[in-house]
Design a protein that fits this description.
Shape: globular
Distance between the termini: 22 Å
Oligomer: single chain
Order of helices and strands: EEEHEEEHEEEHHEHEHEHEHEHEHEHE
Number of strands: 17
Largest sheet: 7 strands, mixed
Bound molecules: NADP nicotinamide-adenine-dinucleotide phosphate, zinc ion
Number of helices: 11
Structural class: alpha/beta
Protein backbone atom coordinates (compact mmCIF):
# COMPACT_ATOMS: atom_id res chain seq x y z
CA UNK A 1 0.00 0.00 0.00
CA UNK A 2 1.41 3.42 -0.91
CA UNK A 3 2.15 5.42 2.23
CA UNK A 4 2.57 9.16 2.29
CA UNK A 5 4.01 11.67 4.71
CA UNK A 6 1.30 14.13 5.68
CA UNK A 7 0.40 16.88 8.12
CA UNK A 8 -2.59 16.37 10.39
CA UNK A 9 -4.56 18.12 13.10
CA UNK A 10 -4.59 15.57 15.97
CA UNK A 11 -7.66 17.18 17.57
CA UNK A 12 -9.79 20.32 17.29
CA UNK A 13 -7.71 23.47 17.81
CA UNK A 14 -4.43 21.56 18.24
CA UNK A 15 -1.54 22.60 16.00
CA UNK A 16 -1.02 20.54 12.87
CA UNK A 17 2.04 18.27 12.82
CA UNK A 18 3.65 15.33 10.95
CA UNK A 19 1.52 12.25 10.30
CA UNK A 20 1.57 9.27 7.92
CA UNK A 21 -1.32 8.15 5.72
CA UNK A 22 -1.80 4.86 3.86
CA UNK A 23 -3.39 5.28 0.45
CA UNK A 24 -5.23 2.41 -1.20
CA UNK A 25 -3.65 0.48 -4.07
CA UNK A 26 -5.30 1.74 -7.27
CA UNK A 27 -8.42 -0.29 -8.08
CA UNK A 28 -9.39 -0.72 -11.75
CA UNK A 29 -10.93 2.79 -11.97
CA UNK A 30 -8.47 4.59 -9.69
CA UNK A 31 -5.66 7.03 -10.32
CA UNK A 32 -2.67 7.32 -7.96
CA UNK A 33 -1.44 10.91 -7.90
CA UNK A 34 1.86 12.37 -6.71
CA UNK A 35 0.74 15.65 -5.14
CA UNK A 36 2.84 18.71 -5.99
CA UNK A 37 0.82 21.58 -4.52
CA UNK A 38 -2.16 21.99 -2.24
CA UNK A 39 -3.96 25.27 -1.61
CA UNK A 40 -4.98 26.32 1.90
CA UNK A 41 -8.70 27.11 2.06
CA UNK A 42 -10.44 28.77 4.99
CA UNK A 43 -12.63 25.64 5.12
CA UNK A 44 -9.47 23.80 6.22
CA UNK A 45 -9.35 26.08 9.26
CA UNK A 46 -13.09 25.79 10.01
CA UNK A 47 -12.82 22.00 9.94
CA UNK A 48 -9.46 21.54 11.67
CA UNK A 49 -10.91 23.65 14.50
CA UNK A 50 -14.26 21.82 14.32
CA UNK A 51 -16.14 25.10 13.87
CA UNK A 52 -18.84 23.43 11.77
CA UNK A 53 -19.25 20.43 14.13
CA UNK A 54 -18.87 16.71 13.41
CA UNK A 55 -15.16 16.77 12.58
CA UNK A 56 -13.14 13.55 12.83
CA UNK A 57 -9.49 13.40 13.90
CA UNK A 58 -6.71 13.00 13.10
CA UNK A 59 -7.56 15.23 10.13
CA UNK A 60 -5.35 15.81 7.08
CA UNK A 61 -6.92 18.89 5.44
CA UNK A 62 -6.44 20.08 1.86
CA UNK A 63 -8.84 20.05 -1.10
CA UNK A 64 -7.07 22.19 -3.68
CA UNK A 65 -4.77 19.48 -5.01
CA UNK A 66 -2.59 19.53 -8.11
CA UNK A 67 -0.18 16.75 -9.04
CA UNK A 68 1.02 14.22 -11.59
CA UNK A 69 -0.48 10.81 -12.21
CA UNK A 70 1.99 8.13 -11.17
CA UNK A 71 -0.11 5.01 -11.86
CA UNK A 72 -3.58 4.18 -13.15
CA UNK A 73 -5.87 1.18 -12.61
CA UNK A 74 -6.47 -1.36 -15.38
CA UNK A 75 -9.82 0.14 -16.50
CA UNK A 76 -8.74 3.80 -16.63
CA UNK A 77 -8.70 5.19 -20.16
CA UNK A 78 -8.98 8.93 -19.45
CA UNK A 79 -5.64 9.45 -17.67
CA UNK A 80 -2.14 8.02 -17.95
CA UNK A 81 1.08 8.24 -15.93
CA UNK A 82 2.61 11.70 -16.20
CA UNK A 83 -0.67 13.61 -16.76
CA UNK A 84 -1.14 16.83 -14.77
CA UNK A 85 -4.32 16.53 -12.74
CA UNK A 86 -6.34 18.12 -9.98
CA UNK A 87 -8.59 16.98 -7.14
CA UNK A 88 -11.06 19.32 -5.49
CA UNK A 89 -13.42 19.10 -2.53
CA UNK A 90 -14.90 15.65 -3.12
CA UNK A 91 -13.64 12.25 -4.28
CA UNK A 92 -16.88 10.28 -4.71
CA UNK A 93 -20.68 10.46 -4.55
CA UNK A 94 -23.58 8.00 -5.05
CA UNK A 95 -23.54 8.40 -8.87
CA UNK A 96 -27.28 7.55 -9.04
CA UNK A 97 -29.32 10.41 -7.57
CA UNK A 98 -30.76 13.20 -9.77
CA UNK A 99 -27.95 15.59 -8.84
CA UNK A 100 -25.18 13.06 -9.55
CA UNK A 101 -26.81 12.19 -12.89
CA UNK A 102 -26.84 15.89 -13.76
CA UNK A 103 -23.17 16.27 -12.89
CA UNK A 104 -23.86 18.24 -9.71
CA UNK A 105 -22.27 15.71 -7.40
CA UNK A 106 -21.74 18.31 -4.69
CA UNK A 107 -25.49 18.15 -4.00
CA UNK A 108 -25.61 14.33 -3.94
CA UNK A 109 -28.64 13.00 -2.02
CA UNK A 110 -26.36 10.56 -0.16
CA UNK A 111 -23.85 13.30 0.57
CA UNK A 112 -20.66 13.65 -1.43
CA UNK A 113 -17.53 11.98 -0.07
CA UNK A 114 -15.40 14.94 0.93
CA UNK A 115 -11.72 14.79 0.09
CA UNK A 116 -10.99 14.85 3.84
CA UNK A 117 -12.90 14.82 7.13
CA UNK A 118 -15.29 12.28 5.63
CA UNK A 119 -15.59 8.52 5.06
CA UNK A 120 -15.43 6.82 1.69
CA UNK A 121 -18.11 4.40 0.55
CA UNK A 122 -16.22 1.54 2.25
CA UNK A 123 -16.29 3.43 5.53
CA UNK A 124 -12.60 4.38 5.51
CA UNK A 125 -11.64 7.90 6.63
CA UNK A 126 -10.60 10.27 3.84
CA UNK A 127 -7.42 12.31 4.11
CA UNK A 128 -6.68 15.43 2.06
CA UNK A 129 -3.91 17.12 0.17
CA UNK A 130 -1.46 18.11 2.91
CA UNK A 131 0.32 14.92 1.84
CA UNK A 132 2.42 13.64 -1.05
CA UNK A 133 0.09 11.08 -2.65
CA UNK A 134 -3.61 10.36 -3.04
CA UNK A 135 -5.66 7.61 -4.71
CA UNK A 136 -8.89 8.85 -6.34
CA UNK A 137 -11.49 7.32 -8.67
CA UNK A 138 -10.75 8.73 -12.13
CA UNK A 139 -14.34 10.06 -12.48
CA UNK A 140 -13.53 12.59 -9.75
CA UNK A 141 -10.18 13.72 -11.16
CA UNK A 142 -9.76 16.93 -13.19
CA UNK A 143 -7.38 17.65 -16.02
CA UNK A 144 -5.19 20.75 -15.49
CA UNK A 145 -4.91 22.52 -18.85
CA UNK A 146 -1.54 23.72 -20.09
CA UNK A 147 -0.59 27.33 -19.56
CA UNK A 148 -1.44 27.76 -15.86
CA UNK A 149 1.55 27.49 -13.47
CA UNK A 150 0.71 24.54 -11.25
CA UNK A 151 0.98 26.32 -7.90
CA UNK A 152 -1.38 29.00 -9.26
CA UNK A 153 -3.79 26.35 -10.55
CA UNK A 154 -4.27 24.58 -7.20
CA UNK A 155 -6.64 27.19 -5.66
CA UNK A 156 -8.91 26.95 -8.71
CA UNK A 157 -10.03 23.52 -7.44
CA UNK A 158 -12.00 25.15 -4.62
CA UNK A 159 -11.75 28.97 -4.59
CA UNK A 160 -12.05 29.08 -8.39
CA UNK A 161 -15.04 26.79 -8.83
CA UNK A 162 -16.86 28.11 -5.75
CA UNK A 163 -16.95 31.60 -7.24
CA UNK A 164 -17.30 30.61 -10.93
CA UNK A 165 -20.28 28.29 -10.40
CA UNK A 166 -22.79 30.74 -8.87
CA UNK A 167 -21.78 33.61 -11.14
CA UNK A 168 -22.64 31.38 -14.12
CA UNK A 169 -25.68 29.71 -12.55
CA UNK A 170 -27.34 32.97 -11.49
CA UNK A 171 -26.57 34.62 -14.81
CA UNK A 172 -23.87 37.25 -14.35
CA UNK A 173 -23.45 38.93 -17.73
CA UNK A 174 -21.19 41.50 -19.33
CA UNK A 175 -21.82 44.97 -17.95
CA UNK A 176 -23.41 43.77 -14.69
CA UNK A 177 -22.33 45.46 -11.47
CA UNK A 178 -20.82 42.86 -9.10
CA UNK A 179 -19.78 43.55 -5.51
CA UNK A 180 -17.34 41.07 -3.96
CA UNK A 181 -17.37 41.06 -0.16
CA UNK A 182 -14.09 39.95 1.46
CA UNK A 183 -10.81 39.90 -0.45
CA UNK A 184 -9.24 36.59 0.52
CA UNK A 185 -8.81 33.35 -1.45
CA UNK A 186 -12.38 33.15 -2.76
CA UNK A 187 -12.76 36.92 -3.05
CA UNK A 188 -9.73 37.46 -5.26
CA UNK A 189 -10.87 34.67 -7.59
CA UNK A 190 -14.34 36.26 -7.73
CA UNK A 191 -12.75 39.56 -8.83
CA UNK A 192 -10.71 37.87 -11.58
CA UNK A 193 -13.55 35.64 -12.79
CA UNK A 194 -16.14 38.42 -12.59
CA UNK A 195 -13.91 40.63 -14.69
CA UNK A 196 -13.24 37.82 -17.20
CA UNK A 197 -17.03 37.40 -17.51
CA UNK A 198 -17.33 41.10 -18.35
CA UNK A 199 -18.73 42.47 -15.09
CA UNK A 200 -17.78 45.76 -13.45
CA UNK A 201 -16.39 44.66 -10.09
CA UNK A 202 -16.38 46.53 -6.77
CA UNK A 203 -14.53 45.10 -3.76
CA UNK A 204 -16.00 45.68 -0.28
CA UNK A 205 -13.38 44.96 2.34
CA UNK A 206 -12.71 45.37 6.04
CA UNK A 207 -9.05 46.03 5.15
CA UNK A 208 -8.45 49.53 3.70
CA UNK A 209 -4.89 48.40 2.89
CA UNK A 210 -6.27 46.06 0.20
CA UNK A 211 -7.41 48.93 -2.08
CA UNK A 212 -4.43 48.94 -4.47
CA UNK A 213 -4.34 45.16 -4.61
CA UNK A 214 -8.06 45.02 -5.44
CA UNK A 215 -7.63 47.44 -8.34
CA UNK A 216 -4.58 45.50 -9.57
CA UNK A 217 -6.67 42.32 -9.62
CA UNK A 218 -9.15 43.99 -11.97
CA UNK A 219 -11.71 45.65 -9.71
CA UNK A 220 -12.96 49.03 -10.91
CA UNK A 221 -13.92 50.29 -7.45
CA UNK A 222 -12.97 49.58 -3.86
CA UNK A 223 -14.79 50.55 -0.68
CA UNK A 224 -13.63 49.97 2.87
CA UNK A 225 -16.62 48.80 4.91
CA UNK A 226 -15.53 51.18 7.70
CA UNK A 227 -16.04 54.13 5.31
CA UNK A 228 -19.73 54.64 6.11
CA UNK A 229 -20.16 57.64 3.79
CA UNK A 230 -18.96 55.76 0.69
CA UNK A 231 -20.87 52.64 1.71
CA UNK A 232 -24.10 54.68 1.82
CA UNK A 233 -23.64 55.83 -1.77
CA UNK A 234 -23.57 52.19 -2.90
CA UNK A 235 -27.20 51.43 -1.87
CA UNK A 236 -29.28 49.86 -4.69
CA UNK A 237 -26.31 49.82 -7.07
CA UNK A 238 -25.48 46.14 -7.69
CA UNK A 239 -26.92 43.33 -9.79
CA UNK A 240 -24.96 40.82 -7.71
CA UNK A 241 -23.25 40.71 -4.33
CA UNK A 242 -20.96 37.72 -3.80
CA UNK A 243 -20.26 37.28 -0.08
CA UNK A 244 -17.08 35.29 0.65
CA UNK A 245 -16.67 36.28 4.30
CA UNK A 246 -15.59 33.55 6.72
CA UNK A 247 -16.81 35.09 10.00
CA UNK A 248 -20.33 36.09 11.16
CA UNK A 249 -21.33 39.55 9.88
CA UNK A 250 -24.46 41.53 9.04
CA UNK A 251 -25.96 40.33 5.73
CA UNK A 252 -28.57 43.10 5.76
CA UNK A 253 -25.97 45.82 5.15
CA UNK A 254 -24.96 44.07 1.92
CA UNK A 255 -28.49 43.13 0.81
CA UNK A 256 -29.33 46.82 0.79
CA UNK A 257 -26.69 47.36 -1.90
CA UNK A 258 -28.69 45.27 -4.42
CA UNK A 259 -30.82 46.80 -7.17
CA UNK A 260 -34.43 45.61 -7.64
CA UNK A 261 -34.30 41.89 -8.52
CA UNK A 262 -30.63 41.76 -7.54
CA UNK A 263 -29.08 38.59 -6.13
CA UNK A 264 -26.82 38.18 -3.11
CA UNK A 265 -24.87 34.92 -3.22
CA UNK A 266 -23.52 33.44 0.01
CA UNK A 267 -20.46 31.27 -0.40
CA UNK A 268 -18.69 32.21 2.84
CA UNK A 269 -19.61 29.73 5.58
CA UNK A 270 -19.33 31.34 9.04
CA UNK A 271 -19.85 28.99 11.96
CA UNK A 272 -22.74 30.99 13.50
CA UNK A 273 -26.07 32.10 11.93
CA UNK A 274 -26.93 35.74 11.24
CA UNK A 275 -30.46 37.25 11.21
CA UNK A 276 -31.90 38.46 7.90
CA UNK A 277 -34.58 41.16 8.04
CA UNK A 278 -37.54 40.59 5.69
CA UNK A 279 -37.36 44.25 4.73
CA UNK A 280 -33.85 43.80 3.36
CA UNK A 281 -35.44 41.55 0.71
CA UNK A 282 -39.08 42.43 0.06
CA UNK A 283 -38.82 46.13 -0.71
CA UNK A 284 -36.88 45.49 -3.90
CA UNK A 285 -37.70 41.84 -4.59
CA UNK A 286 -34.12 40.88 -3.80
CA UNK A 287 -32.88 37.30 -3.69
CA UNK A 288 -30.55 35.71 -1.14
CA UNK A 289 -29.06 32.43 -2.36
CA UNK A 290 -26.27 30.06 -1.43
CA UNK A 291 -23.92 27.92 -3.47
CA UNK A 292 -21.57 25.02 -2.76
CA UNK A 293 -18.42 24.51 -4.88
CA UNK A 294 -19.37 22.97 -8.28
CA UNK A 295 -19.70 19.59 -9.99
CA UNK A 296 -16.93 17.76 -11.82
CA UNK A 297 -18.09 18.79 -15.30
CA UNK A 298 -18.39 22.45 -14.32
CA UNK A 299 -15.03 22.37 -12.53
CA UNK A 300 -13.40 21.15 -15.75
CA UNK A 301 -15.23 23.91 -17.65
CA UNK A 302 -13.90 26.47 -15.15
CA UNK A 303 -10.32 25.19 -15.49
CA UNK A 304 -10.53 25.43 -19.28
CA UNK A 305 -12.10 28.91 -19.00
CA UNK A 306 -9.21 30.01 -16.76
CA UNK A 307 -6.60 28.69 -19.22
CA UNK A 308 -8.33 30.49 -22.09
CA UNK A 309 -8.70 33.78 -20.23
CA UNK A 310 -5.30 33.64 -18.48
CA UNK A 311 -6.89 33.55 -15.03
CA UNK A 312 -4.93 32.01 -12.15
CA UNK A 313 -4.70 32.48 -8.41
CA UNK A 314 -2.21 34.88 -6.82
CA UNK A 315 -0.37 32.71 -4.34
CA UNK A 316 2.19 32.65 -1.57
CA UNK A 317 3.92 29.27 -1.69
CA UNK A 318 4.87 27.89 1.73
CA UNK A 319 6.51 24.76 3.13
CA UNK A 320 4.12 22.64 5.18
CA UNK A 321 6.13 23.53 8.30
CA UNK A 322 4.58 27.05 8.06
CA UNK A 323 0.98 25.84 8.00
CA UNK A 324 0.04 26.83 11.56
CA UNK A 325 1.39 30.34 11.01
CA UNK A 326 -0.47 30.50 7.68
CA UNK A 327 -3.75 29.71 9.47
CA UNK A 328 -3.11 32.53 11.97
CA UNK A 329 -2.36 34.95 9.15
CA UNK A 330 -5.53 33.98 7.26
CA UNK A 331 -7.59 34.61 10.37
CA UNK A 332 -6.23 38.16 10.33
CA UNK A 333 -7.02 38.59 6.61
CA UNK A 334 -3.26 38.70 6.00
CA UNK A 335 -2.84 36.69 2.80
CA UNK A 336 -2.34 37.88 -0.80
CA UNK A 337 -4.42 35.92 -1.65
CA UNK A 338 -3.93 32.17 -1.20
CA UNK A 339 -1.33 30.13 0.63
CA UNK A 340 -0.27 27.06 -1.33
CA UNK A 341 1.74 24.25 0.25
CA UNK A 342 4.70 22.94 -1.76
CA UNK A 343 4.35 19.28 -0.80
CA UNK A 344 8.02 18.59 -1.53
CA UNK A 345 8.54 20.08 1.97
CA UNK A 346 6.82 17.01 3.45
CA UNK A 347 9.89 14.98 2.52
CA UNK A 348 12.25 17.38 4.35
CA UNK A 349 14.09 15.80 7.26
P1 LIG B 1 -10.00 33.79 3.43
O1 LIG B 1 -8.97 33.67 2.39
O2 LIG B 1 -9.64 33.74 4.87
O3 LIG B 1 -10.83 35.14 3.11
C1 LIG B 1 -11.94 35.56 3.88
C2 LIG B 1 -11.99 37.08 3.85
O4 LIG B 1 -13.16 37.51 4.55
C3 LIG B 1 -10.85 37.76 4.59
O5 LIG B 1 -9.70 37.90 3.81
C4 LIG B 1 -11.46 39.12 4.92
O6 LIG B 1 -11.39 39.96 3.76
C5 LIG B 1 -12.93 38.79 5.12
N1 LIG B 1 -13.30 38.74 6.55
C6 LIG B 1 -12.78 37.94 7.50
N2 LIG B 1 -13.37 38.17 8.68
C7 LIG B 1 -14.31 39.10 8.46
C8 LIG B 1 -15.28 39.74 9.28
N3 LIG B 1 -15.41 39.45 10.59
N4 LIG B 1 -16.10 40.66 8.71
C9 LIG B 1 -15.98 40.97 7.42
N5 LIG B 1 -15.06 40.41 6.60
C10 LIG B 1 -14.25 39.49 7.12
O7 LIG B 1 -11.11 32.63 3.25
P2 LIG B 1 -11.54 31.84 1.94
O8 LIG B 1 -10.70 30.63 1.80
O9 LIG B 1 -11.69 32.78 0.83
O10 LIG B 1 -12.97 31.29 2.41
C11 LIG B 1 -14.00 32.21 2.73
C12 LIG B 1 -15.21 31.48 3.26
O11 LIG B 1 -15.81 30.69 2.22
C13 LIG B 1 -14.93 30.50 4.40
O12 LIG B 1 -15.99 30.56 5.33
C14 LIG B 1 -14.92 29.16 3.70
O13 LIG B 1 -15.21 28.08 4.55
C15 LIG B 1 -16.01 29.37 2.70
N6 LIG B 1 -15.99 28.46 1.55
C16 LIG B 1 -17.18 28.10 1.04
C17 LIG B 1 -17.24 27.30 -0.08
C18 LIG B 1 -18.55 26.94 -0.70
O14 LIG B 1 -18.61 25.98 -1.48
N7 LIG B 1 -19.60 27.69 -0.44
C19 LIG B 1 -16.05 26.85 -0.67
C20 LIG B 1 -14.84 27.27 -0.12
C21 LIG B 1 -14.82 28.08 0.99
P3 LIG B 1 -11.18 41.55 3.90
O15 LIG B 1 -9.86 41.71 4.59
O16 LIG B 1 -11.16 41.99 2.47
O17 LIG B 1 -12.34 42.10 4.67
ZN1 LIG C 1 -12.25 25.11 0.02
ZN1 LIG D 1 -25.75 11.26 -5.66
Amino acid sequence: MPTTPAYAAPSARAALGPFTVERREPRPHDVLIDILYCGVCHSDIHQARDEWGGATFPMVPGHEIVGKVSRVGSAVTTFKAGDTVGVGCFVDSCRECPQCLQGEEQYCDQGMVDTYNSHDRDGQPTYGGYSTRITVDSKYVLRIPEGIPLERAAPLLCAGITTYSPLRRFGLKAGDALAVVGLGGLGHMAVKLGKALGAEVTVLSTSPSKREGALALGATHFAATSDKATFKTLANKFDFVLDTVSAPHDYNAYLRLLKTDGTMILVGAPEAPTPVAAFSLIGRRRRLVGSLIGGIRETQEMLDFCAKHQVASDVEVIPIQHINDAYERMLKGDVRYRFVVDTASLNAK
